[in-house]
Amino acid sequence: MEGKSYKPFKPYKNFEHPIRVLFYYLNFLEKLMEPVSTSGFTALLKLYGIAIMVTLAVGLVAAVVLMTRMPRSPQE
To answer: Would residue 26 count as lying in a domain?
Structure first.
């Protein structure tokens, strides 16, 4: 089949790969952890934001693992 070019299969061609998105997110989380205030309302607000970000990061990791794991049986 000369003249016909085949393109490699790219499952994530329309959006970023989930693992890359996870690393961008964790980099953002690391910047969020830099201290702004250690006392008062600002520290409490920052702690609340960090708790939300950690929860979202764990949820994102779980979602990526569930999406990429192989099914155990044909019924799954």
So the answer is: yes
Q: Are 22 and 59 in contact (CB under 8 A)?
A: no
Structure tokens at 11: 């499952």
Closest CA to 64 of 8, 1, 21, 13: 21
**Position of tokens 């970000």?**
53
- Residues in the chain where the model's pLDDT stays below 50: none
AA letter at 54: V
**Residue 64: how many other CB atoms lie within 10 Å:** 15
Domain residue limits at 26: 18-66
Specify if 48 maps to a domain.
yes
Note if the pTM is more than 0.85.
no
Asked if residue 57 is part of any domain, the answer here is: yes
pLDDT of residue 69: 76
